[in-house]
Each structure stands twice: as C-alpha cells, then as structure tokens.
C-alpha cells in the first residue's frame, strides 16, 4: 500500500471479527516498531505481545475494574473481540543511563535535564509504527490507555519489570464490518491551516 494511503486509512478500530491474525504480520509490526527514533538511540522500549486467547483474556481481567467487567459497555465489548493485544512500555532508566555516558556530556542521571519525557514519546512513536503497519497489512488496530488502577494488576499478571512503564495498549485484528466509532464520528478533523504556524505563532 502507498504510504499516503496508509496514513489516510489509519483510524482506531474498536471491534474485530473472529478471524485470527497471521503471526508473521504481528512480527512485521514489531520489526517496524523498533525502527522508531529514540533519543540517543537509547531504545528504552519493550513490547508485551499477547496473541493467545488465554493471555488476551488475562489482559482484560487484569485491566478492567470489577464493576465495569460485570457490566461491560459497548467500547469494552468491542475491544475484547481483538485476538491480539500489544503493550508498549518505556524505560526511563535506559534514557537516564544513556545520557550519563561520556559521549552525551551529562555526568548524572538528573531528570531535570529532560523537560519532556522522551522515553514515553519514543514509545509512542513506536506504537504509531505498529498502527501504520496494521493498516498496511489490511488489519485494524486501536491504541488506548490502561486505567491507573489496572497498571499494578497488569504488571503482576505478566511480570512486567519495575523499570518498564506501560504507555498504553494496542488491540489488533481484522476490522468488523460495522466497527464501533469513536470521537472521530462526531468531531471534525482540524485542517492543517488551523494548526500550522509558519514563522511565528
């Protein structure tokens, strides 16, 4: 698929068919994800891949509050149909350690050097490459946040190390014919003319 078409077609898919996802397609998503830029080539990301039904079910059990699990809303019912979940994580420690190396000029690991948490930014760029690759593979995907009270159970359920922070999760699958639609269905996309400022704001 042409790159412009990938960008144009990319959207968040919230409901999937029961068709399985080719493991080779998932591998291509991950190979592309690790091509994302990272500050200092720190590459402080990690990706938890859940592609077995039992593991996907454990993800939802860990991240869904009991009250919501008992009465799932349309969003949750649709998202739970995804056969694959990928959890991108970021390691702040990897960045602090990398920039304390001699070639970077800092002699400490002080977070004050970082006005923006690039460990999360870089993991987000890797996540976008997963979303774009899904489109190129003829699949759908959705990036979403893990609720704060679901983070500790998620870590415990899958052994995510303390130095890696989940930055969200991505469902992947074959889009259903009538996918549920999010905010894009009721809000217009802002044109470039409204958000691009040339020379001065």
TrEMBL record:
InterPro entries per record: Nitroreductase (IPR029479), Nitroreductase-like (IPR000415)
Gene Ontology MF terms: oxidoreductase activity
Extent of Basic and acidic residues compositional bias: 191-201
Keywords: Oxidoreductase
The UniProt record lists the keyword Cell wall biogenesis/degradation: no
All residue ranges annotated as the Nitroreductase domain in the record: 7-174
Highest taxon of source: Bacteria
Region (Disordered), start-end ranges: 170-201
Pfam families recorded: Nitroreductase
Family of the protein in this entry: Belongs to the nitroreductase family.
Name assigned to this protein: Nitroreductase family protein
Organism: Georgenia yuyongxinii
